[in-house]
Amino acid sequence: MDLNALRIYLLVAESASFTRAAERLGLTRARVSAVVQQLEAELGTRLLARTTRSVRVTPDGQLFAERAQALLLDSEELQALFQRQPAALRGRLRVDMPGQLASQVLIPRLPEFLSAHPQIELELSSTDRRVDLVHEGFDCVIRAGSLRESGLVARPLGCMPQINVASPAYLATYGVPRSLEDLAQHRLVRYSSTLAGAVQGWEYTQDGEPRMLPMAAVLTVNNTVAYEAACLAGLGLIQAPAQGLGEWLKQGALVEVLPEHRAEPLPVTLLYAHRRQVARRVQAFMDWVAGVLGEVLAPP
């Protein structure tokens, strides 16, 4: 089977568009469509369901995509076995990570990685939504918080201590909380990436165990930018990683409260699919990420 045809199909499946795939490959739409049709004819099944408005992967197409990705990876590793000199890392690298880690820590350091590996094409997703690593074609993802995924390899990178903060305007209106009992007179800004599973109160630890104190909220948001903005606007207290709040604290735009009643630190984990071999470019990127984050995160 033509490996280049597999690459074309995977890009169409990922893009959900023949046109976008053709543009990225530098081919005509007709050529891309013909390659996929030939694959379907060879396999005797429909890989993509097409309408005038959309392209979606069929169940057979999803199964084929997963096996095709593994086959391409195996071919890369096989070629590397017989190269006398380590080949330059090349190819597409698709990763996902939390927005704050991306903007404040990793993106400022990316020039050093891409300078060392100029033939890598990096695609970086940095939304707060939890992507599906396998089905959405990511090589690796970074997660902050508890893990729910199964069947993935998890590499702990460290943790982010959390602090409690409010704006001076909020504290001037509601007062400074001095104890957990005082929180009955305060309000919380809630955070949930899905707006369906928001924390229902104040998180803290007692005797080494996580606890929850029910607390009122007038606003729930689903991304970290809005979460910080709501706190800065005086809408309530938030509990967030200290890593992303340093500048606001220095400027006096936010103030720490109840330092003795912080939420548990957020674990940061690197996840990737369980395969016999990991592509060299993916392994190199993961090792680089671990080194960069190891400089700023607390030990796991």
From TrEMBL:
Entries under Pfam families matching the protein: HTH_1, LysR_substrate
InterPro entries for this protein: LysR-type_TF_proteobact-type (IPR058163), LysR_HTH_N (IPR000847), LysR_subst-bd (IPR005119), WH-like_DNA-bd_sf (IPR036388), WH_DNA-bd_sf (IPR036390)
Superkingdom of this protein's organism: Bacteria
GO-annotated biological processes: DNA-templated transcription
Record bears the keyword DNA-binding: yes
A single MF term (Gene Ontology): DNA-binding transcription factor activity
Every HTH lysR-type domain range: 1-58
Keyword field: DNA-binding, Transcription, Transcription regulation
Family named by the database record: Belongs to the LysR transcriptional regulatory family.
Name assigned to this protein: LysR family transcriptional regulator
UniProt source species: Xenophilus arseniciresistens
